[in-house]
Design goal:
The chain has 80 residues and is mainly alpha-helical. The protein has three helices and no strands. The protein starts with 5 loop residues before the first helix and ends with a helix.
Length: 80
């Protein structure tokens, strides 16, 4: 015998149930693809825009650079 009273055993079972429920909740949150995608999109939007919602200058500069490189690549390939 374990020497534990029924109350102690019940308390251990209740604690294990709470721990298991917390683990299941954490796994459910990790596996919620839609919610994770929405959080990531919101985070990217927050990092790419100012408090007023307009794009940050560095984002505009990076986008402009990418567009310029794409145009230069297309022009270079057509002239060859």
């Amino acid at each position: 015998m374990s020497g534990k009273s029924p109350e102690e055993i019940e308390a251990e079972i209740a604690a294990q149930r709470e721990e298991l429920a917390a683990t299941v909740d954490q796994l459910t949150a990790k596996l919620d693809v839609k919610a994770n995608a929405q959080r990531k999109a919101a985070d990217l939007k927050d990092r790419a825009t100012t408090g007023t919602g307009s794009p940050r200058p560095e984002v505009l500069a990076a986008a402009g650079s990418l567009i310029a490189m794409a145009i230069a690549l297309v022009w270079w390939r057509r002239t060859r």
